[in-house]
Every structure is written in structure tokens, then in C-alpha cells.
Protein: PP4R1 phosphatase
Organism: Vireo altiloquus
Amino acid sequence: QSMDSTLHYIHDSDLSTNSSFSPEEERKSKVQDVVPQALLDQYLSMTDPSRAQTVDTEIAKHCAYSLPGVALTLGRQNWHCLKDTYETLASDMQWKVRRTLAFSIHELGVILGDQLTAGDLVPVFNGFLKDLDEVRIGVLKHLHDFLKLLHVDKRREYLYQLHEFLVTDNSRNWRFRAELAEQLILLLDLYSARDIYDYLRPIAFSLCADKVSSVRWISYKLVSEMVKKLYMASTPTFVVDLMNELVEKFCRCHKWSGRQTFVFICQTISEDDCLPMDQFA
């Protein structure tokens, strides 16, 4: 019966409304009327260190894995019940716990809405950006999904940090750079032509010269999409400057690999119809 009423609540509740809480409401005890309170109390106690010793060493990881589902069930109006537990998990000593949260933070942002995301999730997100690679990959894989939830001004702040994803704990971790290239293709839709030219272009060119071919092939696609985006922008100088730099940096490169890169980029631009043929010529 409790399960039926919970599912009925999820179905009927309006998850699209924004709401913010006053300090008085935030201080309320973790009481809600969606699920049996004893059940929620049991869930919240999963972060107790003694549980890891007596019940299961990975109980905090299980707690982190279930948190978005619990948040969805309770609704954003009851986020105050989970906020402390979330922050405790986000600073857990085990990287597996933090990694689990990093992979789901974009989903939690959708559940909580823009105000709670900006206030409560962005600080945690910023911490994950500086974490171990095993944690960083979680936020990197869904970077576009999370950044699109933020207001434009807040989103622009992350432009200055994107190049940090080029640096990894292990330089052989090429999949990290490949994922960065994939995400940058999606991020082109979130930023202006000037931001793309000033901040994303240098990263794209760096990825085009990567030692691993899989990273380079995704980067060719990234550059071609960048050309397409800048060509459609109101300021034509960006795409002209970009193409001139492609010629200078790769076509006239003293290494054969650089000249080969130029040919592959031209191939991708042509195949994807990123430019009119007269402009291409």
C-alpha cells in the first residue's frame, strides 16, 4: 500500500515547478509525508560509519547510487531531508562513493531545478572537477547535460576550466581526452561564437595533435562542427581566422602528421557540408 501511494504521488506531483526555501524551512527536521518516515530514517543512516563496519563495507556507495531515486520520490520540496546526506556522501573518503555521485549529478540537477542546482549542486560539482580522474570522468561524461541546467553567466565560468581536462593523472588515459572531444561537440550549442573561438578552439587544436588516433578522429569532427557553427554566426571574422589558422598550423606543418591532419579535417568539413563549396575553396 505504501508503494502504491508513493508511485501515485510521483505520477501526480508536478516536478517542473521551481521552489526555494527560506532558512527557517531549511532548519526543519528531516520529516516528510511521502514515504514512511522510518524508511527514510533507515536510508539516511546508511552514511553512519558504524554501518560500514557492521552491515556492509560498501553501504555508503549503495546509498549514493540510490540517492537520485530517493530525491525523485520525495520531490524537490523535500530536498532539505537529503541535503546533509548528499554533502556527507560527496566528501566521503572512498572515491567509489564520490564517483557514483559524479555520474548522477546531472540527473539530480533535473530533479531539483535550477535554483537548488545552483545553490547546492554547483559547489559539489566544482569539487568533483578537482578530484581523482576516476571521479572527474563522471562529471566529464555528462558535462553538457549539467552545464545546460545552469544560467548563462554561471555556465560561462566553466570556460576557463575546460582546458584542465587535458591534464590527467595518467597520460595514457586517452579515453578521457576522447570523451572531452565528444563533450565539446555538444557544448558548441551552449556558447557564443566568440567563446567558441577564444576558449574551445585552442583545446580542439590540441586534441587534433593527440598521440592517439581515436582521439584525433573525434577531434576532426569537433573542428568541422566548430567551422560550421562559426560560419553560421553573425560575425564572419571568426570562421575566416579559424580556417587561416588551420592552414598555418596543420597544412604548412613541417611534420607529415600535421599535414595529414589538415587533409582529414578538410575531408570531414566536406562530407558534413559544414561550408558552402565556394567558401571551402
Remarks:
- The chain has a mean pLDDT of 87.
